[in-house]
Specification:
single chain, 71 residues
Length: 71
């Protein structure tokens, strides 16, 4: 009878190398808040849209700056 030989049983398994994740930051939250203000301003007053655009720009610059200076 044929033994239960498969390619999976013949391979040597190795532990996965740990991934390096970026440091936690609040910038994605502020970006989402800017998008929310932008959408809210489209439904109500243009001042909220302007505030949302300003928050979005600050959040994008801050988040990109954090990512650029990692390692």
């Amino acid at each position: 009878m044929n033994e239960n030989i498969s390619p999976v049983n013949q391979q040597e398994w190795h532990e996965a190398a740990p991934e390096e994740l970026p440091e936690p930051t609040y910038w994605p939250f502020y970006l989402a808040m800017g998008i929310m203000f932008l959408a809210w301003g489209l439904l109500t007053m243009w001042e909220f849209s302007l505030l949302g655009i300003i928050i979005m720009i600050i959040a994008l610059v801050g988040w990109i700056n954090v990512l650029r200076h990692e390692r």
